[in-house]
Amino acid sequence: MNPDDGSFSQLQANAAKLKHDMLMETQEAESAKAADFLRQFVRSAMELGLVAEPLFARGYGGKGRAKTPLRGWYLKNDRSLAVDTEGNYYILTTDLSALDRLRGVSPKPSSPPLILSQGARDGESMDLTVKLSEILPTWRRGEAG
């Protein structure tokens, strides 16, 4: 195969696409598993009467905060990640204007990871199940086998 005939670059493009597709499949499967964990946690929390608190969005760099219509539980001490009472995962750090801080914001749910803050520079990455167990040690008791 001659690298100048175009077929080599086509092979490279196909390999890159295949690698990307496999990565996306893996991320989707991990996110689905994390979503199951969050739903199980919320179900246990509600059954046991763990009080959900109002969730606030924080501005980048700690610049202000804004109300949200959400209630749930924070997943990090800095309150940047949370799960709401419906089992949705939120990243609560965002760009906030002065108007946002007055009126509030409505964050959109994100796909949950199995590892919180993976790759973050703050060194606070943590397995989702470990963090959920810190909040509610008995959340997995109803899990089958």
Structure notes:
The protein is of the alpha+beta class and about 140 residues long. The protein has one domain. The strands form two sheets. The protein has a five-stranded mixed beta sheet.
List the helices and strands and how they pair.
Elements: H1 7-48, E1 53-59, E2 65-74, E3 81-84, E4 89-91, E5 93-94, H2 98-103, E6 115-116, E7 126-127, H3 128-135
Parallel strand pairs: 1-5
Antiparallel strand pairs: 1-2, 2-3, 3-4, 6-7
Give the gist of this structure.
The protein is an alpha+beta fold.
Which characteristics define this entry?
145 residues, alpha+beta, five-stranded mixed beta sheet, two-stranded antiparallel ribbon, 3 helices, 21% strand
The unreliable regions are: none
- Sheet-strand content, in percent, reads 15-25%
What spatial form do the alpha-carbon principal axes imply? globular
Q: Kindly name the structural category.
A: alpha+beta
Q: State the share of residues found in helices, binned by percent.
A: 25-40%
DSSP E strands, number = 7
Helix/strand order: HEEEEEHEEH
Q: Rg from C-alpha positions?
A: 20 Å
Summed up, the domain count is 1
Q: Biggest β-sheet, characterized? A: 5 strands, mixed
How far apart are the first and last residues' alpha carbons, in Å?
53 Å
Rounded mean pLDDT is: 88
So how many helices?
A: 3
How are strands sequenced across the largest beta sheet?
4-3-2-1-5
